[in-house]
Amino acid sequence: MKVTFPHMGNMYVPIKVLLDTSGIDYVMPPYCTNEPLELGIRHSPEFACLPFKTILGDFIYGVDNGADFILFAGGRGQCRLGYYGDLQAEILKSLDYKVKFVCLDLTNLTPKEILNRIKPLTEGKSILNIIKGIIYAVKTVYMVDNLNELARYTRCREIIKGQTDRLISQFHNLAQKANGYKNISDIINLTKKSLRQIPVDKKYKPVKVSIVGEMYVSTHPNINFQLEKKLGNMGVEVQNNLSISHWITDHFVRKLLPIKFKKEPHEAGKEYMKTNDIGGHGIHTIGCSILSAKNNFDGVIHLYPFTCMPEIIAQCAFSEVQNKYDIPIMTLIIDEMTGEAGYMTRLEAFIDMLKMKSEVATTNN
Amino acid sequence: MITIGLPKGLFYFEHNMLWERFFKNLGCNVITSQDTNKQILDYGVKCCSNETCLPVKVFHGHVYSIKDIVDYVFIPRYISLDKNEYTCPKFCGLPDMAVLNLKRQVKVLEVRIHTDMFPSETFDSLLEISRVLNIKYSDIIEAFKAASKEFDEYIQNRHKFNQYIKDVSSTKSALSVLGHPYMIYDSYLSMTLLDKLTRRSITVYTPKDIDHETKRRNAYPFQGKVFWDVGFELLGSAFTFAEDKNIKGLIYLTPFACGVDAFILEFIERRIKSHYNIPLLKLTIDEHTGEAGFDTRLEAFLDMVG
Ligand code: SF4
Ligand code: SF4
Asked: Do A84 and A231 share a domain, yes or no?
C-alpha cells in the first residue's frame, strides 16, 4: 500500500521522517505549487473553507500519482474539520477513485482500534521502526520550528536582503529530495549553521507583529502569500502563534506531565467568550491577541479562510481588544479569489502605520 | 415584573415554546421581537462584520430591536442538543457575539446546553440565572422541568398528528422544502416561499414532518456517527423524501456562505445525482437577493417538475 498525505506548512518534513523510518511507501504531493490547489478547488463545494480544498487537492494529486491509501484524522465537535474526511471520501468515491480512505476519530478510538485500522499500512513493518519513526518525527517537528524561529530573527535584521530567503528555499529543495532522519536532520542543522552566519544588524529594533487565526492558512505559505517572508523583508519581526510544535506541546506533551498547565492563550481568550470551545482556534485567537499586546508586540495580524466560522466569532472581540489593550489588529481573509495586489496594499499600509506609531512612541520617550 | 426578550431568529423557530414557557413559569413578562423585516435586517447588517452569515446578522437585528424595551434578552448557548450531535460553532458563541457586536448595550441571559459531553452545564447556567434574577434555584429548576416536559409532549404530539407518512402522501404529489428552520420558516428570509407554494395548492413537506429517528436512520453517510444536528435533519429528510415517488422535487434554501450548508448540500447533491432521480433546486439568499429573480427561478423549477 502506498499512502499520500496533505501539506500543511513544514509538516511534510516530519511526516517524511516518520514514513521513511517506518518503511512505509508514500506519494508526496508537490510542495507549494498550484496544481493540487486547482484540483481541490475544482472538486470542492464553493463555500467549503480553503483548507478543505487544498487538502482534497493534495489527496487527488497523490492518488493520481499512485497512492492507494489515505489516512486522515477527524473527530467530534463543532467545526468542519471533524467532517472533512467523510466528505472528501465521498467526493473521491463519486470521482471513481479506488482508494482506501481511513478516517480516524481520535476522540473515540482506543489506541488498539487505531492500530487495527491502519493495519494495511503497518502490516509486515517492524513495530520498533514505527516507534522510532514517531520519536524522530516529533523531534523533527521541533527542529523545523526552531529553524523557522531563527529565520524570523535573521530575515528582518539581515544586512544583505534576501540571504535568509535563499537559505530557506534551498532548505526546502533539499528536504523534499532527502530521505530518512539522518539526512534530513543534517540538512536542518546545516541550514541553521548558515543562517547563524548571515551578517545581521544587532542594534536594529524591528517592529514586532504577531500572527493569530486559523492554523492552516497561518502556517501554509502557499496560501497566505508567503506572509512571514513578506513581513520579514519589510523589516518586521514575526511571531507565529500557530506552530505545530506549540500544538503538540499543548495537546500531547502537557497532557502527559503530572502538573496541570493552564493553556495561557485559552484562559486569556475566555475574557470574551464565556465558554470553553467555539470550534477550531477561535478562543486561542482572542487569547493570543491579548497576550501579544501584553508582551509588547506592535500589532496583530489575524488570518483566516473565507467562511471560517470560529474565526468570524473571534473577530467580534477585536474592537474591544484593540481599545482595551491598545494594540492594532488587522484581519485578512483568504480564499482562492484573493488577489495578491490588494492583499499587499493592505499589509503595507498596516505595517507603515505600525512603524509610524512606534517611531512616535520612541521619540516621546 | 422582569421582562425577558426573545429574539425571533435562529433557535426561536424550533424552541420558542420551551423558553417562553420557562420564563412565564417564572412569572416573567415575555416579549418577542417582530417578524424579520427590512429594518431588523439593516440593524443586523450594521452590528456585524461583513463576513457573518445572514441568519446571524438578522438575529443581531432582532436583539437590537428589543434591547431597550426589555430587562434581559435571552440567548441560549446551544453546543450539543443530543448525544453525538453538535451545533454550528456560531451557536456556541452566540451570547458573546451579541454582547460584543452590540457594544455591551444589551444584558443577556443564557442557558447552556451540552448534551453530548457536559449535560450538567445546563444546571450551572440555571444557577446563574437564579442569581441574576434573584429567584430561588429550586423554583428555576421546577420551571425549567415543567417547560421541558410540555415542550416534549408538544413535539411528540406534533409527530403523532402531523407525521409525514409515505403511504398517506402517496396519493398526491408534493414538494419538499429543505434548509435551516430559521431560513425556511422565516417568511422574510425565505421570501415567503412556503406561502407561495401553498397558494398554488402545492402540498409541501419540510423536515418537521419526518420523525427524529427516521431522519437519523437515513442520514447517509453519518448514521451512527457524530455530526451536526442540522446535518442529520437535512440529510435524513432529503434522502427520505427522495425515496418517495410522489415527491416531485426538493427545494433547498441556503444563506450565502453558510459553512455548514456547504458540506450538507454537497453530500445531498452528490448522492441525489448518483442514486436518485429527483430534481433539486438550490436557492441562495443574501441581503441583496431580489425577489423577482428568486421568483423566476422558482417558476422555472415548478414548470419543470410539473
Ligand atoms: S476552523 Fe475554519 S478553516 Fe478550520 S475547519 Fe473550521 S471553518 Fe474550516
Ligand atoms: S449554520 Fe450556517 S447559517 Fe446557521 S449560524 Fe452557522 S454558518 Fe450561519
From this structure: no
